[in-house]
Write a structure and sequence with these properties.
Growth Hormone, Chain: A; mainly alpha
Length: about 240
């Protein structure tokens, strides 16, 4: 299926920057405070680690699945809307339960919708700026900026309202992100021919350099994931407040 030609306006590209700011900032709230919330409701460190480890595992299946539907629908914007809506609904459900088994199961569902969000937003950026003078970095920067700013501003708010009410702040921020999807460009997805895809996989699987790159990626990701999961708990145990 060939990609559809959809006009991308400067207004829609501006909306894409604002969308990235709030999307990354919203996800930063969960990344920073989810472990603290789970500890507050009584989960052990092992249980917290198991819950958070579900994300990378599910992403192995979720990213190709939603990538396929972006290609099939020829509409990255629509896929992002589906992902964020299901993300919000699943998160609200997670905050309403206290049994570990149910939390674990629902978090796997949450990660199924959450883990492809960044890759889909990056795809939307790349598709939208194709054949324009815009660079990927100027859009991705807004995401990093949002992550830093909103994570810091959320601290005093959560400290005041209590970590058990984290879902309220997250829900409000996610709804803001959803509102910004209205003005996003549709996103053009161009499918490669079957022969091109086979050639691509053949090169990847036969390349020693690519294999080394993947191994290094795993080695970097493991300690980074450990830090990302437990650093908020470590700071808390040192006496740091939300």
């Amino acid at each position: 299926m060939a990609g559809q030609t959809v006009e991308v306006t400067e207004k829609s590209l501006s909306s894409l920057k604002r969308f990235n700011f709030f999307l990354y900032g919203t996800i930063a709230i969960l990344t920073s405070y989810f472990p603290l919330y789970f500890e507050e409701i009584g989960l052990s460190k092992v249980e917290i680690g198991m819950v958070m480890a579900g994300g990378p595992f599910i992403s192995i299946f979720a990213n190709p699945f939603w990538g396929y539907w972006s290609d099939r629908l020829q509409n990255v914007k629509r896929v992002l809307g589906i992902l964020l809506t299901c993300n919000l609904l699943t998160t609200i459900a997670v905050f309403q339960i206290r049994e570990y088994a149910m939390i674990f199961a629902l978090m796997l569902v949450f990660f199924f919708f959450n883990s492809p969000t960044f890759s889909q937003s990056n795809s939307l950026i790349l598709n939208s700026i194709e054949n324009t003078n815009h660079k990927f970095g100027e859009f991705r920067w807004w995401g990093s900026f949002g992550w830093a700013v909103i994570a810091v501003l959320a601290g005093p708010v959560i400290g005041r309202m209590g970590i058990v009410n984290l879902w309220i702040l997250y829900g409000i921020m996610m709804m803001v992100s959803l509102l910004f999807t209205i003005g996003l460009p549709q996103g053009r997805v161009t499918s490669k021919a079957k022969s091109e895809r086979q050639s691509y996989w053949k090169v990847m699987l036969s390349s020693k350099l690519f294999f080394v790159f993947v191994v290094l990626g795993v080695l970097i990701s493991v300690p980074n994931s450990i830090n990302q999961t437990f650093v908020s708990l470590y700071i808390s145990h040192l006496g740091g407040s939300e």
